Amino acid sequence: MVIPVNKLINKAHVFMGGTFDPIHYGHLRTALEIQQWLDVESVYLMPANVPVHRETPGSTSAARLAMIERAISGENTLRCDPREILSDRPSFTIYTLEALRKELGSEIPVCMVIGMDSFLTLDQWYRFDEYLSKCHIIVAARPGYHFKPNQKLQQLLTEHQVSEKSDVLTQAAGGILLHELTPLSISATHIRELLSNGLSPRYLLPDSVWDYIQQNKLYGSNEG
Ligand code: ATP
């Protein structure tokens, strides 16, 4: 049977890590737009267990996981990979990349999606200089973060930046691709601030997540 070209689904494994504290439309829209743009079957949201690059999150691992599950319920193209949050060791991305490579082998493209803010601190991440031998990095432009890489990151870009999605879909690893998405100036920090001031974060995140926050009185919210 001949499969029409536009029905071929790319085999790349695409994931987006983060604390998701809580998950919001900035994360969800980014993941969905990347999934559609790359034409892959799904994008995996991968919540971190112990956030090593940032402050401790405001809610428990179980609550963050529950909110992700509610947020992506009914959306088959978005999935949750709970390996880091269920692990008892710190969420160092390099460990995850090593585990993914063990599972997927060396040929399947692996793409790690990160926002611009995360990319600009990448050189501080544990063993970051090994990432590109294991994955591609797709950097999502994010409102409020201007593209001013330091010297180390600039060097990395000079060696690894690619401009076409076909570059990350046909090679297993090694490319950095900057991609513009619908700009959504939403952050979990802002949502936590609204809640701690007794204000509603509604319409910045799915109602199912907002309901969960209220039911469990997270981030200093009172049940509505
Ligand atoms: P916080 O405000 O607590 O730092 P956050 O909103 O940045 O949280 P994270 O869980 O830290 O969310 O982010 C996970 C990933 O999603 C990161 O790579 C981050 O850059 C990206 N991201 C978060 N919000 C957006 C957004 N509005 N647009 C694009 N990317 C985003």
UniProtKB/TrEMBL annotation:
Its EC number is 2.7.7.18. Pathway: Cofactor biosynthesis; NAD(+) biosynthesis; deamido-NAD(+) from nicotinate D-ribonucleotide: step 1/1. GO terms for biological process: NAD+ biosynthetic process. The keyword ATP-binding applies. Residues 15-193 form the Cytidyltransferase-like domain. InterPro entries: Cyt_trans-like, NadD/NMNAT, Rossmann-like_a/b/a_fold. One of its GO terms (molecular function) is nicotinate-nucleotide adenylyltransferase activity. Pfam families: CTP_transf_like. The keyword Transferase applies. Keywords: ATP-binding, NAD, Nucleotide-binding, Nucleotidyltransferase, Pyridine nucleotide biosynthesis, Transferase. CDD domains: NMNAT. It catalyses: nicotinate beta-D-ribonucleotide + ATP + H(+) = deamido-NAD(+) + diphosphate. Catalyzes the reversible adenylation of nicotinate mononucleotide (NaMN) to nicotinic acid adenine dinucleotide (NaAD). Belongs to the NadD family. This is Probable nicotinate-nucleotide adenylyltransferase. It comes from Neptunomonas antarctica. The gene is nadD.
